[in-house]
Design goal:
The structure is a single chain. With 357 residues, the protein is of the alpha/beta class. The chain has 2 domains: 162 residues, Rossmann fold, CATH 3.40.50; 179 residues, Dihydrodipicolinate Reductase, domain 2 (2-Layer Sandwich). The protein has 14 helices and 16 strands. Strand 1, helix 1 and strand 2 form a beta-alpha-beta unit. The radius of gyration is 20 Å and the shape is globular.
Length: 357
Amino acid sequence: MNPATKPSFLLYGANGYTARLIIELANSFGLTPILAGRSMAKVKSLADQYGLTYRLADLNDASAFDALLQDVSVVLHCAGPFSKTAAPMQQACLRTVTHYLDITGEIDVFEQGMKLHSEALGQHIMLMSGVGFDVVPTDCLARYLHDRLPDATHLQLAFFTEGGILSHGTVQTALEGLGEGGKVRRNGRIEKVPNAHKVLTIDFGTGQGLPCMSIPWGDVSTAHYTTGIPNIETFIGSSMSQIRLAKLGNYLGWLLRIGAVQSFLRRQIASRVTGPDQMSRQRARTHVWGKVWNAYGQSWTARLHGPEGYTLTALSALTITKKVLVGNWKAGYQTPAGMYGADLILEIAGITREDVV
């Protein structure tokens, strides 16, 4: 198929680490991204490299953004930190009647999107955050578990990446949350808790238990909308030294929130963090664990296994983008598994799912 005849979508933040993976894989999905961002030098260089068209606009310029979106039906937003960039992009999509997708994992961004549900219905567009590793695999596992135990009142989700390396954007987003503590959902409401307030030992199917500390993962928001379960906790596989360090943050949160400290850490990230190379991504594996239980003590546990997080993000984001482009969408604010079901994740090559007896 000639690239000019393939369905196209706008990829904003095209020069980011994950966006580059999406560019490299888009052709295999029969899609052509229109590259977009703020920097002429970075975006044009990418467009020349891949033989793609590009556009420029700053999120702070509403009129330029409206012009950017006028003739596209779907935006895949990859420019973090999403706490700053999601709202202006969502508003531009509402004004121009453009479907919105992003790859965030930030709880506040998910909650912000849900507040736009009525507006999205009125404009007859879909808003969907978290079409990547945050939160497609965990959201799909939450839906799978709820489908098996529909009266579940509690949900725990955990993930662990063997051999994973973080990208600049991911570390930058994590930096913003330093000193803010954790979050859980209790009786339907999101509540703040201390960092690593709970530690579980979880078998991800690797043959041994791994210590996992609670973190404020996106499913604290999304899994509730997908399943209706009122009590949700999320965890990450860690080492005991990492857990101790996280707990230390409960006492140093005031220091980590100081602007000068944040600025210093941003400079360190910019100079030292790049992201995993192709060989590292191929070696790494992602494991996801989930458990639900109800008021009668009945429970169900299951696991997912698949590619590492960045590869998984690119594949799941393109899978969902293609669905929207062919008309498989629903107006309003939607979650990945709420819209496409528990088996959405199984459409991605290399994913397996198992019940835990």
